[in-house]
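Batch job 17 of 40 flagged for manual review because the log was empty.
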Amino acid sequence: MSWITMAWSMDAALCFTLAGIYLLVWWKQREGRAHLLFACSAVAAGVIAVLELTSMRTETTAQYGALLRWAHLPVWILIVSVVWFVRTYLRAGRAWLAWSVCSLRTLALVLNFLFTPNLNYREITSLRHLSWWGGETVSAPVGVPNPWTLVGQLSVLLLLIFLVDATITVWRRGDRRRALIVGGSAISFITLALGQSALVIWGVIESPFFISFPYLGIVAAMGYELSSDLLRAAQLAQRFQASEAALRESEARINLVTNAANLGLWLWNVRDDKLWGTEKWRKLFGFAESEPMKFGRLLQVVHPEDRERIQQLVQHTLEHGGGEYESEYRITRPDGSTRWIAGYGGVELDEHGKPAFARGVSRDITLRKQAEDALRESEARFRTLADTAPVLIWMSDTDKLTRTSSAIFSTKAGSILPAAPWSKSAGMAGQRAFTRKT
């Protein structure tokens, strides 16, 4: 196999391979239009390489003219793809220049199919058979240039201006590596392709067209930059997975500690109204694990008699520059039961002094509340018994003081009844007795 066949075949194969890879990437990530545009430009460059190789092996002027005519279609695809790749990927280049390049190149494509044999030549009179290194013979056109070919060359010149403008913008933005790799290489290779094709068309040099290799250089530069992005994305994904694993481990530890302490942690993003809570907190309030949480949803489970008070407390905390707060309130769980909750939290402000986040802990204090209620009920019963019994109840404590029934309730149970006078007692400490009333 000749080295020319091998070189141009490898050119085409490389372009088609890159096109296939990035077409698959685009298929997986439809929002990445730069990958689709790159795949289109790579396919076009590969087709140009195949047409060039075929034209160098032609024996008739009609075949050469037909191949050159159809070569304008992949050239149009490549130029349009490069323009919008720069606009999409680099976010640079003036829009009116981009549309001018595409419009003028489209006009050149239309004129190409209106003229015979093509846009470049009015007539191909003959083919030169040139001898290259290694004894290879290639065909080169000889003919009368078509003046309308200036339309196509002008479109490429506008493309160069567009690329220079975009490169300067990216350079000034501070992304100099992309400016050099994508913009600089595109300017260099487009200039080379334009110069070589113009010299062949106008008969300045005797040579076949070989613009596929400059276009391969553009594709390679674009592919290198995209592959760097893919590599960085893969590295970020690995770091994200590692941090996610660490986060899950940290969350598991927090859940373990909070479960042991019977505490539920929560975090409220005030600006977005998004509420996050630990597993214990969700179970405490009866929320499903995957249920999206907002402050309004939390208020729905607060007991109706406490709901307005809690809402006013939170509103007051947000309106008065944050700070910390404590509260006790009741909630109604999905099974209809009522639980007492003790809450402690604080509000964090952003750089503008506005509430940004609120975080805190919640704890189930139902048992404590039930014990307090039972104690108050027991004291009330004992007070009733003491006040209505036909005996006087007294107690002598370790301080050697004697207390009557009224004093007992005043000092021990927080009674609002007036305490009886204190008196010294000669009895032993800790004695209690009943004295019949007369």
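Reviewer: the log was empty due to a logging misconfiguration, but the result itself is present. Residues 409-438 have pLDDT under 50 and may be disordered. Unflagging and moving on to job 18.
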